[in-house]
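Appendix B. Extra example for self-study. Work through it before the problem class; the solution is given directly after the inputs so you can check yourself.
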Amino acid sequence: MAKEMTLSGCAATAQAVKLAKVDVICSYPIRPYTAAMMELAKMVAEGELDAEFIHGEGEHAQLSVVYGASAAGARTFTGSSGVGVTYAMEVYSPISGARLPVQMMIADRALDPPGDFGSEHTDAMSCRDQGWLMGWAESPQEAFDNHLINYRIGEDRRVMLPQFVCQDGYFVSHIPGKVLVPDQAQVDEFLPAYDPGSHVLDPKKPMSHGPQIRPDQGTIMDLQRAQAFLDLPAVVKQAVGDFNRIFERNYAPFVEEFMTDGAEIVFFLMGGHAATARHAVRHLREQGVKAGMVKLRFVRPFPTKEVGEVLSKFKAVGVVETSTSYGGSMRGGNLLPEVRAALYDAPTRPLTTSFMAGLGGDVVSLKDFYWMAGILTAAVQAGKVGKTVYWTGLEKA
Amino acid sequence: MAEVKTQMLPMLKKLRNIPREEQYVPGHRTCAGCGPALQYRLVAKAAGPNTIFVGPTGCMYVANASYLCTPYQVPWIHAQITNGGAVASGIEAAYRARIRKGSWVGELPNVIVMAGDGGSTDIGLQAMSALMYRGHDALFICYDNESYANTGIQTSPTTPYGGNTTFTPPGKAIPEGKRLFPKDPPQLVIGGHPAVKYVATASVAYPIDLMNKVRKALNVRGPTFLHIHAPCPKGWKFDESKTVEMARLAVATGMWNIYEWEEGVYRYQYRPRELKPVGEYLKPQKRFAHLQEEHIARLQAFVDAKQRAIGVPVKVPVPVPKAVL
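Solution. Structure tokens for the complete assembly:
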């Protein structure tokens, strides 16, 4: 029987990792993700979780330890936040290139400078093209669920890829919410024991892992990694379908729509700020504004087809950007370029713009969403958007 | 914690006791006379088939591991030059967990990191130290060819004083080339890692000693460290038929000491009764060709101080200018 617990995002993560029966965990402290490791350390100390708990000497080592452990056939878990995520950068591509289904939690945090504890997606988004799956959770429940879903997808023989399982620092990682924690038998049904297959460091089957290639062998290897991402959507749909059936949930695999029936303007975003956006949409509807929300569950693989299909139904889309891309094509964040690309081949294209918001851990308030709705409504009336990026709270509509 | 390793590799007394089976076979692309390749072959032979090698980037990665054509008869995995110690830690931890949980049956494999001097003492120092600190059952080998050779002979922390490398070229303003004295890797390990029970140095010039030290290290339950002198004809610029001679001269002149440290006790091997002057070692190597008398004296003084400390009688063979001492 599932039991209901009140857990922060970090505590929910630890519960999921325990139920996934991981073999090797590697820790290093940095706020806010570190609360998950503290929970796991307690579980190992109490004998509730049978895993090797390695104190890494830094984030780069954390990823290196799980790289070795995964290559030796173990199910692994690690995590980080902020500058810790970027410190480990060297090791992300070797892990995905070796097709090792390592899992890393990111409770995101603004990069320096200035020193800032707050949530911001830039740390993780800076690593989005390293060949890992990546997606955000809106709540401790979704964080819990995403860990199990990602292990299942990443370890699928058709995929064999590592996963960044992200949640917003503090907003999700440290604010408790109700979490349905299933029993072990249910989890075992959804997530079988890890089978590393034949490509393992094993003296009984000697094999060289990661030798050098000639330049003419490079493209074909990159194609294989790219192909795994092309094959991913079918695996994601199957895994999310099974998850919904076994645990009685109702997740969309890639793109969740909220109050989009009859909507003309929508907020497009991912992660914890979606919780505020839902309230904003309800209030806006009460005031007669035809608003809705579309939430992205995976940014890698980017669900180009689904995003194109869903967003082409509306008149204007406001992308809420919680990461920076200085000098990028849209002059703001990282999502609007992807959204516009996804809409390029759509039969009808909505107006699109973006709102820089929630950087450095700033709260994106109801008022902020109303302000965004005003800009989107004006754009619909004018039949065009004024510009591609607005800095929320710092400029007039 | 349940014992997952019972192995006791026997010591080798004579050359003919050495296993005939090769774990590191020909067909790689190392240079003629490569010291690191020679020690790799000896290490792999001594370790035997129940072994996993971790190969951080360096000569022994680039010249050995070509896709579809690697010389390893045992499992091998590439690590970044930064993280050999951490990758080995993960492999060892994975095997511990898998043996305990029953997802793998067998004896804990020998996990050996084969890192160059940069991958051990410079960019890889943090990961090496952490492996030693955490007490993983793994052997970390620093094969020392005294430079970043794979990238075209740049100075590393173990390049000797006076070495001409592409980052320490001698010139009018800096006539001696390299101005710094090298790090001492085994002392770094011994000095600050209480989990470590066995540390040794070895040389390609003394293969039986080298192989027995590998076996001794692998018989220890816990982290061990070997520092192996591996001359590099290309980087040191000497005749490639003289690799072993160069290694012997290093020992005879005190430029390299062979010893082991076991739970606090030092034992020295091949300690010369009388040191030859360092000049005899420097002369055949063109990396030292630019050194002037005062530079050689400075190096001699450094060597003498080191030898005195371990009880080798020293007679200063060349006059040392006052300005230097």
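Self-check: The first helix of chain A runs from residue 9 to 19. If your reasoning did not lead you there, revisit section 3.
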